[in-house]
Specification:
Blueprint (H helix, E strand, L loop, with lengths): L15 H54 L3 E6 L20 E6 L3 E8 L8 E5 L7 E2 L9 E11 L8 E10 L13 E8 L7
Antiparallel strand pairs: 1-2, 2-3, 3-4, 4-5, 6-7, 7-8
Length: 203
């Protein structure tokens, strides 16, 4: 009787080490892909926020400059909002004022206030057309959830009483997260200009 010997070959499977290596590789690739996507989205959002800040800052600066330069009268600068000095003879490039008031041909009296509020917080730069009763931020109020003031300053330079006062306006804006935290990776953006008052002491 003839005896048949079967040489069966068992199908080879994956070992535990191979499975673990595959899982590690897949996890690593997933992490890298997720990181790239997150970084791209964050970079796009950062660009949008910075562009929003620049648009708001430039618009605010142009409006302030126009209102001061073409004001009907220069009512003065002040450090306390109560006593306004109609000239800047006692000041200088490094002397900072917190209030500035002008009267425009169209809007009437305008008061600008650059002040850090008593509870510790972001400095504010506001404008009021009713003597300070109702103050409005100089930046777009619809964007205040993502924009905050880093600092602001008002300077006034004048050599003698007949010289035209040169008003310096400076402020910096920074992006903040919805939770109110500052976005550390985005440095504050500075906006500054100098404006000569055209109608100073003109009849």
């Amino acid at each position: 009787m003839k005896k048949t010997i079967f040489n069966s070959r068992g199908q080879k499977g994956f070992t535990l080490i191979e499975l673990l290596v595959s899982i590690v590789v897949l996890v690593a690739l997933g992490s890298i892909t997720t990181g790239v996507i997150f970084s791209t989205l964050r970079g796009s959002n950062k660009t949008n926020v910075n562009e929003n800040i620049r648009q708001n800052g430039n618009y605010a600066l142009s409006q302030i400059s126009k209102n001061i330069e073409y004001a009907q009268t220069f009512d003065g600068v002040s450090v306390n909002g109560a006593t306004y000095v109609p000239n800047c003879l006692n000041g200088g490039p490094s002397y900072k004022y917190q209030y500035l008031k002008v009267t425009t041909f169209n809007s009437g009296p305008l008061q600008y206030k650059c002040l850090i509020p008593p509870p510790p917080g972001s400095p504010t730069f506001t404008v009021s057309d009713d003597g300070g009763t109702t103050e409005t931020s100089i930046v777009d109020t619809s964007s205040t959830s993502s924009i905050a003031f880093e600092n602001c300053s008002i300077t006034c330079i004048q050599t003698n009483d007949m010289d035209v006062p040169i008003i310096g306006i400076s402020f910096t804006l920074k992006p903040v997260t919805p939770s109110g935290l500052v976005e550390d990776s985005s440095p504050p953006i500075e906006f500054k200009t100098s404006v000569a008052i055209r109608n100073y002491k003109k009849e």
